Amino acid sequence: MNQELRDRGYVACKGLLDPSLARVLWTTLLLNQWRGEAFRDNHVPTAASVAGSATTDALLLDLRPRIEEISGCHLVPTYSYARLYFRGDGLIRHRDRQACEISVSIHLGRVGGDGSLCFGADDRVDMDEGDGAVYLGCATDHWRAPFAGYTMGQVFLHYVDRDGPYAQQAFDGRPERFPTSLVTDLTGPAHTAPARP
Fold first, then answer.
1. What are φ and ψ of residue 5, in 5° steps?
2. From residue 116, how far is each of 38, 122, 132, 143 by CA, in Å?
3. Given pLDDT bands bounded at 50, 70 and 90, which one contains residue 105?
4. CATH architecture of 3-183
Protein backbone atom coordinates (compact mmCIF):
# COMPACT_ATOMS: atom_id res chain seq x y z
CA MET A 1 0.00 0.00 0.00
CA ASN A 2 1.12 3.55 -0.72
CA GLN A 3 2.94 4.85 2.38
CA GLU A 4 1.16 8.24 2.40
CA LEU A 5 -2.21 6.48 2.17
CA ARG A 6 -1.26 4.13 5.00
CA ASP A 7 0.10 6.93 7.24
CA ARG A 8 -2.41 9.74 6.62
CA GLY A 9 -5.42 7.70 5.58
CA TYR A 10 -5.78 9.64 2.31
CA VAL A 11 -3.96 10.97 -0.75
CA ALA A 12 -5.03 14.22 -2.48
CA CYS A 13 -5.24 13.80 -6.27
CA LYS A 14 -5.32 17.00 -8.32
CA GLY A 15 -6.64 16.44 -11.84
CA LEU A 16 -7.82 12.88 -11.25
CA LEU A 17 -10.41 13.45 -13.98
CA ASP A 18 -10.12 15.76 -16.95
CA PRO A 19 -12.25 18.85 -16.10
CA SER A 20 -14.29 18.43 -19.30
CA LEU A 21 -15.29 14.89 -18.26
CA ALA A 22 -16.07 16.14 -14.74
CA ARG A 23 -18.39 18.77 -16.29
CA VAL A 24 -20.20 16.09 -18.34
CA LEU A 25 -20.70 14.00 -15.20
CA TRP A 26 -21.85 17.10 -13.29
CA THR A 27 -24.43 17.85 -16.00
CA THR A 28 -25.52 14.19 -15.98
CA LEU A 29 -26.06 14.35 -12.21
CA LEU A 30 -28.08 17.57 -12.56
CA LEU A 31 -30.22 15.89 -15.24
CA ASN A 32 -30.68 12.81 -13.01
CA GLN A 33 -32.06 15.08 -10.30
CA TRP A 34 -34.22 17.15 -12.68
CA ARG A 35 -35.74 14.03 -14.27
CA GLY A 36 -36.59 12.41 -10.94
CA GLU A 37 -33.95 9.67 -11.32
CA ALA A 38 -32.22 10.53 -8.03
CA PHE A 39 -33.25 9.50 -4.52
CA ARG A 40 -32.73 10.67 -0.95
CA ASP A 41 -30.48 8.63 1.33
CA ASN A 42 -30.13 8.51 5.11
CA HIS A 43 -26.60 9.99 5.11
CA VAL A 44 -27.62 13.35 3.61
CA PRO A 45 -31.44 13.21 3.38
CA THR A 46 -31.80 16.59 1.67
CA ALA A 47 -29.27 15.78 -1.08
CA ALA A 48 -30.05 13.94 -4.33
CA SER A 49 -28.22 10.64 -4.87
CA VAL A 50 -27.66 8.19 -7.72
CA ALA A 51 -26.30 4.70 -7.06
CA GLY A 52 -24.66 2.32 -9.49
CA SER A 53 -25.69 4.00 -12.73
CA ALA A 54 -24.12 2.74 -15.94
CA THR A 55 -22.21 6.04 -16.15
CA THR A 56 -20.73 5.93 -12.64
CA ASP A 57 -20.06 2.18 -12.84
CA ALA A 58 -18.16 2.76 -16.10
CA LEU A 59 -16.04 5.32 -14.25
CA LEU A 60 -15.54 2.80 -11.43
CA LEU A 61 -14.14 0.26 -13.90
CA ASP A 62 -12.12 2.63 -16.07
CA LEU A 63 -10.41 4.50 -13.22
CA ARG A 64 -9.45 1.31 -11.38
CA PRO A 65 -5.93 1.05 -12.92
CA ARG A 66 -5.21 4.67 -11.91
CA ILE A 67 -6.52 4.09 -8.38
CA GLU A 68 -4.35 0.96 -8.17
CA GLU A 69 -1.31 3.11 -9.03
CA ILE A 70 -2.22 5.67 -6.37
CA SER A 71 -3.12 3.16 -3.66
CA GLY A 72 -0.44 0.57 -4.39
CA CYS A 73 -3.08 -2.19 -4.10
CA HIS A 74 -4.62 -4.69 -6.53
CA LEU A 75 -8.25 -3.58 -6.48
CA VAL A 76 -11.63 -5.11 -7.17
CA PRO A 77 -14.56 -2.69 -7.65
CA THR A 78 -17.47 -2.76 -5.23
CA TYR A 79 -19.84 0.10 -6.12
CA SER A 80 -20.23 3.67 -7.35
CA TYR A 81 -22.38 6.48 -6.00
CA ALA A 82 -22.97 10.14 -6.84
CA ARG A 83 -24.50 12.89 -4.74
CA LEU A 84 -25.81 16.37 -5.49
CA TYR A 85 -25.49 18.57 -2.40
CA PHE A 86 -27.60 21.69 -1.89
CA ARG A 87 -27.14 24.72 0.39
CA GLY A 88 -26.77 23.61 4.00
CA ASP A 89 -26.12 19.94 3.20
CA GLY A 90 -23.28 18.46 5.21
CA LEU A 91 -21.94 14.99 5.83
CA ILE A 92 -21.40 13.93 9.43
CA ARG A 93 -18.05 12.59 10.56
CA HIS A 94 -18.06 8.87 9.83
CA ARG A 95 -16.29 5.81 8.51
CA ASP A 96 -17.68 3.67 5.71
CA ARG A 97 -18.59 0.01 5.55
CA GLN A 98 -16.16 -2.74 4.49
CA ALA A 99 -17.01 -2.44 0.78
CA CYS A 100 -15.33 1.00 0.92
CA GLU A 101 -11.85 -0.19 1.92
CA ILE A 102 -10.26 2.02 -0.76
CA SER A 103 -12.56 4.92 -1.62
CA VAL A 104 -12.37 7.80 -4.06
CA SER A 105 -14.25 11.09 -3.93
CA ILE A 106 -14.13 13.21 -7.09
CA HIS A 107 -15.45 16.76 -7.36
CA LEU A 108 -17.62 17.22 -10.46
CA GLY A 109 -18.64 20.86 -10.17
CA ARG A 110 -20.43 23.39 -8.03
CA VAL A 111 -22.16 26.74 -7.95
CA GLY A 112 -20.69 28.71 -5.03
CA GLY A 113 -19.24 27.31 -1.82
CA ASP A 114 -16.23 25.03 -1.69
CA GLY A 115 -15.75 21.34 -2.40
CA SER A 116 -13.58 20.36 0.55
CA LEU A 117 -13.51 16.89 2.08
CA CYS A 118 -12.37 16.92 5.72
CA PHE A 119 -10.15 14.31 7.37
CA GLY A 120 -9.24 16.24 10.53
CA ALA A 121 -9.80 19.58 12.25
CA ASP A 122 -7.09 21.20 10.12
CA ASP A 123 -6.74 18.44 7.55
CA ARG A 124 -8.84 18.69 4.41
CA VAL A 125 -8.59 18.27 0.66
CA ASP A 126 -9.81 21.28 -1.34
CA MET A 127 -11.22 20.23 -4.70
CA ASP A 128 -12.05 21.84 -7.99
CA GLU A 129 -13.55 20.14 -11.09
CA GLY A 130 -11.86 16.78 -11.59
CA ASP A 131 -9.86 16.85 -8.34
CA GLY A 132 -10.23 13.97 -5.93
CA ALA A 133 -9.05 12.14 -2.87
CA VAL A 134 -8.23 8.45 -2.47
CA TYR A 135 -8.78 7.38 1.13
CA LEU A 136 -9.19 4.43 3.45
CA GLY A 137 -12.97 4.63 3.69
CA CYS A 138 -13.56 2.16 6.51
CA ALA A 139 -10.48 3.18 8.53
CA THR A 140 -10.36 6.99 8.20
CA ASP A 141 -12.87 9.49 9.59
CA HIS A 142 -14.15 11.87 6.91
CA TRP A 143 -16.91 14.46 6.58
CA ARG A 144 -18.11 17.62 4.84
CA ALA A 145 -19.02 20.90 6.49
CA PRO A 146 -22.46 22.27 5.58
CA PHE A 147 -22.29 23.45 1.98
CA ALA A 148 -22.48 27.25 1.67
CA GLY A 149 -23.07 27.41 -2.08
CA TYR A 150 -26.10 26.64 -4.25
CA THR A 151 -25.28 23.10 -5.42
CA MET A 152 -22.30 20.73 -5.69
CA GLY A 153 -21.74 17.33 -7.31
CA GLN A 154 -19.44 14.53 -6.16
CA VAL A 155 -18.94 10.97 -7.38
CA PHE A 156 -17.70 8.22 -5.08
CA LEU A 157 -15.93 5.08 -6.29
CA HIS A 158 -15.35 2.19 -3.92
CA TYR A 159 -12.97 -0.75 -4.11
CA VAL A 160 -11.49 -3.51 -1.97
CA ASP A 161 -7.97 -4.90 -1.98
CA ARG A 162 -8.08 -8.14 -3.96
CA ASP A 163 -5.67 -9.69 -1.45
CA GLY A 164 -7.09 -8.00 1.65
CA PRO A 165 -9.51 -8.87 4.45
CA TYR A 166 -12.58 -7.50 2.62
CA ALA A 167 -12.06 -9.20 -0.76
CA GLN A 168 -15.42 -10.98 -0.34
CA GLN A 169 -17.09 -7.56 -0.76
CA ALA A 170 -16.19 -7.59 -4.49
CA PHE A 171 -18.92 -6.03 -6.66
CA ASP A 172 -20.88 -5.31 -3.46
CA GLY A 173 -22.82 -8.56 -3.84
CA ARG A 174 -24.12 -7.72 -7.32
CA PRO A 175 -21.72 -9.28 -9.83
CA GLU A 176 -24.58 -9.57 -12.35
CA ARG A 177 -24.35 -5.77 -12.81
CA PHE A 178 -20.90 -6.15 -14.39
CA PRO A 179 -20.58 -8.23 -17.60
CA THR A 180 -17.75 -10.74 -17.37
CA SER A 181 -16.36 -9.32 -20.61
CA LEU A 182 -15.58 -6.09 -18.69
CA VAL A 183 -14.16 -7.60 -15.50
CA THR A 184 -12.40 -10.82 -16.46
CA ASP A 185 -8.97 -9.24 -15.94
CA LEU A 186 -9.02 -7.85 -12.39
CA THR A 187 -5.80 -5.88 -12.97
CA GLY A 188 -7.46 -3.75 -15.64
CA PRO A 189 -10.78 -3.86 -17.46
CA ALA A 190 -10.90 -6.01 -20.57
CA HIS A 191 -12.22 -3.74 -23.29
CA THR A 192 -14.21 -6.30 -25.23
CA ALA A 193 -17.81 -5.95 -26.27
CA PRO A 194 -20.28 -7.38 -23.76
CA ALA A 195 -22.42 -10.28 -24.93
CA ARG A 196 -25.82 -9.33 -26.30
CA PRO A 197 -28.72 -10.06 -23.92
1. -65, -45
2. 23, 12, 10, 9
3. very high
4. Sandwich (2.60)
